[in-house]
Design goal:
The complex is a heterodimer of chains A (118) and B (113). Chain A has no helices and eleven strands. Chain A is mostly beta strands. In chain A, strands 2, 4, 5, 9, 10 and 11 form a six-stranded mixed β-sheet that branches. In chain A, strands 1-3-8-7-6 form a five-stranded antiparallel β-sheet, with no helix packed on it. In chain A, 0% of the residues lie in helices and 53% in strands. Chain B is an all-beta fold and 113 residues long. Chain B is 0% helix and 50% strand. Chain B has no helices and eleven strands. The chains are: A mainly beta (118), B mainly beta (113). The interface between A and B is medium-sized, with 27 and 28 residues.
Amino acid sequence: DQQVKQNSPSLSVQEGRISILNCDYTNSMFDYFLWYKKYPAEGPTFLISISSIKDKNEDGRFTVFLNKSAKHLSLHIVPSQPGDSAVYFCAAKGRYGAGGTSYGKLTFGQGTILTVHP
Amino acid sequence: NAGVTQTPKFQVLKTGQSMTLQCAQDMNHNSMYWYRQDPGMGLRLIYYSASEGTTDKGEVPNGYNVSRLNKREFSLRLESAAPSQTSVYFCASSELAIRDTQYFGPGTRLTVL
């Protein structure tokens, strides 16, 4: 039962253009969402997060949008740079013990490989 | 500032062998986690420790045991390795389990033959 899904295994964009990575979730008890970035042979690094009380959070070139009614979030990278090429994971957490979510547990999507071409 | 460190980086085991993966963090975090990453599966939580002295099962705990040795260290043990445990293992830590960002180590690539 995949509660967090990233349906696009890969995305290819041109340098300078917008990259949009998508993520869907099924558990309505998730109330905090994060994006992690992972380079080969390294651990994931935190990129940006959003609480369910917001619908948008921006940090420099990165913006995360949350549509709770659709149970959908997206990460926008503008402008995209070759150094952004990596695997991007979305993750979700819920309140303690609520709706089958575990204390502090992050549920990850499968990841999307982003390639930004010069 | 090392953050989260893991040893070893690579390991090859034969079926039935045992080993312990080590993890340490120097950020004075209370909570620590072990994940495995498999192709097409994302990261899945094996065990976690919300605070020193406590451990709890995650999503895929079977075949593993953990020890929270002290506030800094959290080890993962495979008592009798199986090919299905071939994976990349990541340790992570956070200041608190709720709400706080998790910081990941570089991973251990384990192959079980």
